[in-house]
């Protein structure tokens, strides 16, 4: 379902920020920032934001942080940037310091550059761990909707893709391009994408 844009918000983001998305029918969903990447040339996603999106519907932009738990995720964790706030697709409403109960035990992302799986720090994982997303930047213009397979889907500008690594050649870049693989995307480095 398309998102309804709210007033744009230019601000500094912090781990523990709780934000809202507003649907076309004026209902809301909520998300939480769980990590922020380092700035500068060493970071794979400089200034990137690792966030969760929860399957917790609401009629008003009044989040209850107590129900925003890892077992209520709408889709796998994802990387994004300030774009979603600047354009009004996300809007920060509250802040709650994180504790271990707010987080998945391990994050997993499919990385097309190695045709394998990494965690949020760009460390290689021996196997896929659920819930597993993409090691790529995602720009939201529509709320993830479950397709016939039950897999959440996200929209990258005008393109739609699954939030699971079904096709290793597809991903979302800051410009919403598809088909970006190891020869393109952001260039692999030995540094962490998001520091602990």
Number of helices: 1
> What share of residues is helical?
under 10%
Give the beta-strand count. Answer: 12
Give the N-terminus to C-terminus distance in angstroms: 33 Å
Indicate the proportion of strand residues. Answer: 25-35%
Order of helices and strands: EEEEHEEEEEEEE
Q: What are the segments in which pLDDT stays under 50 over at least 5 consecutive residues?
A: 146-196
Tally of structural domains? 1
Question: What is the topological layout?
Answer:
Blueprint: E1 17-22, E2 28-36, E3 49-53, E4 78-80, H1 83-86, E5 91-95, E6 108-111, E7 116-118, E8 124-125, E9 132-134, E10 145-146, E11 152-156, E12 159-162
Parallel strand pairs: 6-9
Antiparallel strand pairs: 1-2, 1-5, 2-3, 3-4, 6-7, 7-8, 10-11, 11-12
Please provide a written account of the structure.
The chain is mostly beta strands and 196 residues long. The chain has one domain (17-162). Helix content is 2%, strand content 26%. It has one helix and twelve strands, in the order E-E-E-E-H-E-E-E-E-E-E-E-E. The strands form three sheets. Strands 4-3-2-1-5 form a five-stranded antiparallel β-sheet. A four-stranded mixed β-sheet has the order 8-7-6-9, with no helix packed on it. The longest helix is centred in the middle third of the chain and has 4 residues, at 83-86. The protein is globular. The N and C termini lie far apart (33 Å). The model is unreliable at 146-196 (pLDDT under 50).
Describe what is shown at a glance.
The protein has one helix at residues 83-86; strands at residues 17-22, 28-36, 49-53, 78-80, 91-95, 108-111, 116-118, 124-125, 132-134, 145-146, 152-156, 159-162. It has one domain (17-162). Strand 7 (116-118) and strand 8 (124-125) form a beta hairpin.
């Amino acid at each position: 379902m398309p998102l309804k844009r709210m007033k744009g918000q230019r601000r500094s983001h912090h781990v523990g920020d709780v934000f809202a998305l507003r649907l076309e029918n004026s209902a809301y969903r909520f998300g939480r920032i769980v990590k922020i990447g380092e700035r500068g040339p060493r970071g794979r996603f400089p200034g990137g934001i690792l966030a969760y999106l929860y399957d917790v519907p609401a009629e008003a932009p009044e989040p209850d942080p107590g129900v925003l738990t890892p077992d209520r995720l709408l889709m796998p964790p994802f990387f994004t940037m300030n774009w979603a706030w600047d354009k009004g697709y996300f809007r920060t409403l509250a802040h709650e310091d994180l504790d271990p109960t707010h987080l998945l035990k391990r994050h997993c992302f499919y990385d097309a550059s190695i045709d394998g799986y990494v965690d949020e720090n760009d460390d290689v994982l021996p196997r896929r761990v659920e819930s597993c997303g993409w090691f790529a930047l995602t720009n939201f213009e529509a709320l993830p909707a479950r397709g016939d397979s039950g897999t959440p889907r996200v929209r990258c500008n005008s393109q739609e893709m699954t939030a699971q690594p079904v096709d290793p050649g597809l991903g979302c870049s800051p410009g919403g391009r598809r088909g970006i693989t190891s020869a393109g995307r952001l260039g692999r480095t030995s540094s962490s994408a998001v520091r602990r």
